[in-house]
Amino acid sequence: MRQSSSFTAGLLSMASLASLTQAELGKIQWKGLCDPTNATGPMICGTLDVPLDYTDSTSNKTLTLDIGKWPAAKKATAEPVFVNFGGPGVNSFEGLGSYGKEFQTILGGHSDVITFNPRGVGNTIPFSCYSNDSSRELASLQAPNDGTASNTARGEIWAQSTNYAQACYAQNGENGSLIGTTFAARDTLQVLDALRGKNALLNYWGISYGTTVGAVMAAMFPERMGYLALDGVDNPAEYFNG
C-alpha cells in the first residue's frame, strides 16, 4: 500500500509539470532521406528544437531532438503513430531502421511511424557515466556478477551501484536532472504539436520502458491521448520506487 501511495503521489507531481507553458519553438525541419542504421526503407530524418527545462518557464534554453519518420506505405489517411523503443537508452533510429517495414505491415500502411532519440541518447544530451572507454571497462570488470554468490555479494553490488551513481553525477551534474520520464513525455507532446497541432491526439506504441513513458503521459496529459498500446509492460511502481 505504501508503494502504491508513493507512486500515486509521484504521478500527481508529474501532472503538475503539465501545467507549465512555454512559447512554441518551431516546426520540425525535415532533412530528407537518412540511413543511420542501414535501414531497408525510406526513413526520413529531421530535427526539432524543444525547451531544455520544462520546469523553468523563464528559461529560453533549448535542445535539438533528432526525429525519425517511416512514411506510410500507402496513402497516409490515418494519424501518425509514435513508437518508443524503450530502454531507457535505446537508440530509436536503430529500432525504426530495423523494424519500420514491420510496423507499417502491422498498422495497415496508412500511418506515418514517428520516433525520436530521447534525452541521453545519440546527440540529444549525450549521457555517459565515464570519461572514456577505459574507465568504463574497468568499472565493468570490478562489478560483482552474482547477487547470491555469497553473504557479502549484495553489499558489494550496493557499493558498486553507489560508485556508479556518483560517477554519473560527476559526469552529468549539469544536465542529468533534465533527463527522465517526464521530460520524455513532454518531448513527445512537443513533437506531436509540431506535426499535427496542439489539439491533436497522440497515438502511441510503447515497448518495454516505453510502456512506463506511455503510462506517465496518460497521467500527465489524459486529454491528449488517442490510442495507446503498451507492449511488454514494465511495472511503473517498481521502476520509480525500485
TrEMBL record:
Which GO MF term does the entry hold, naming one?
Answer: hydrolase activity
> Residue span of the signal peptide, if any?
1-23
This protein's UniProt keywords? Hydrolase, Signal
Residue ranges crossing the lipid bilayer per the database entry? none
Protein's UniProt keywords contain Signal:
yes
Domain AB hydrolase-1: from-to ranges: 106-236
| The keyword Translocase belongs to this UniProt entry's keyword annotation | no
Cross-referenced InterPro entries, in alphabetical order? AB_hydrolase_1, AB_hydrolase_fold, Serine_prot/Carboxylest_S33
In the record, the note on similarity to other proteins reads: Belongs to the peptidase S33 family.
Descriptive protein name: AB hydrolase-1 domain-containing protein
Origin species, per record, is Aspergillus oryzae (strain 3.042)
Tell me the classification of the organism that encodes this protein: Eukaryota, Fungi, Dikarya, Ascomycota, Pezizomycotina
